[in-house]
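Let's practice the habit of predicting before peeking. Look at the sequence and jot down your guess about where helices and strands might fall. Then scroll down.
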Amino acid sequence: MGTRQQSHLECRRCGTTLEADGTTCPACGSSDIAQYDF
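Done guessing? Here is the structure:
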């Protein structure tokens, strides 16, 4: 097992999943992005 960490970026406004480098939601334009690290 490795120690590789994964992240999931999701718009807090509409729930759209963003790419790893996303800072603005492509669906609604919100910049309120949640980052979940696994």
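How did you do? The first strand starts at residue 7 and ends at 11.
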